[in-house]
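Record 1 of the preview.
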Amino acid sequence: MTFSFVAKAGVLLLFFGSTLYVHLRGKARLPLLRQFVNHSALFAPYNALMYLFSGVPSKPYLDRNRFPELDVLKDNWEVIREEAMHSSTRGTFAQPRKTTTLVSARSSRKAGSVST
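->
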């Protein structure tokens, strides 16, 4: 076997192995064939590295004690709320812009044709 063949086979096995690892890691899964042809297979080696070397446990709810920087928000939530309420009553929050999207234009055309 040549080095070139071994290198190509190694890269291919890396993609297959990491895609399979990402596929088997969670509880909600795509069908196996779709997983391999999906865009997630392209990023599977990167995702596998992030999963393996992450310091954060893979639980749906993380313990807040692991993030002490959130104590500032917990201690000052009333002050933050009061500032937001004050800004809301003064009208200093930016109002959302009205944009016409393709969906809203279609629905307005349908609504217009129905009502006339």
